Amino acid sequence: MNTLAEKRLNNINMPFKSKEQRAFLHANHPEIAKRWERDYENEEDSSFTLDDVLMSGMEILGDYGAYEANLRGSETVDAGVESLKELVEYYLSKLGLTDTDAEYYKKRHEAYQAIWDENFRLNKELLGHADKDERKEQEILNQRYNAMVLAAMNAPQESEETFNEAVKNVLDQYQ
């Protein structure tokens, strides 16, 4: 059975051979991945919904954020943050909204809030079934996922701010 994210990928006519190749290109060659998505997007398919954003967003968090300790470099998490931003921007573009529309900001907030809420719900569910060691690992993962969502949501849209800079800026706001 296909996930909504896989259905989304299948509905976009692009030269990616697999979901794994798409993730690899976004992580290691983001300019190529962006160009392929831009050049090969099927403009007639506008059925990308908030549910698609939610499911794809959760997959991005898992794909880019789930790892033990510091086994991946920050560039992998940065790629995940960038993928979240691109996902939400794609959704907004399918709604026909631009950053000059007031509705754009409302829908943008709703998309990030949906990802945040689903991550919270899943984390709470997982913690309820975890033993002491698993709890600690799950709490660390949840903190990383939350930081990724906050970094994507709060990062300027025009600049290439890194994940670490975005998290620092968010944390500075609360100190």
Structure in words:
With 175 residues, the chain is mainly α. It has one domain (48-173). 73% of the residues lie in helices and 0% in strands. It is built from 8 helices and no strands. The chain has helices spanning 4-11, 19-28, 30-40, 50-65, 74-94, 102-128, 132-154, 163-173.
Helix-strand topology string:
HHHHHHHH
Q: What is the domain total for the residues?
A: 1
Helical residue percent? over 70%
How much is the radius of gyration in Å? 16 Å
Strand runs, count: 0
Name the average pLDDT.
77
How many helices does DSSP assign?
A: 8
Q: Termini separation (Å)?
A: 46 Å
| DSSP strand content | under 5%
Described by the principal axes of the CA atoms, the overall outline is: globular
Tell me about the largest β-sheet. none
Structural class by sheet pairing and helices: mainly alpha
Low-confidence regions? 1-14
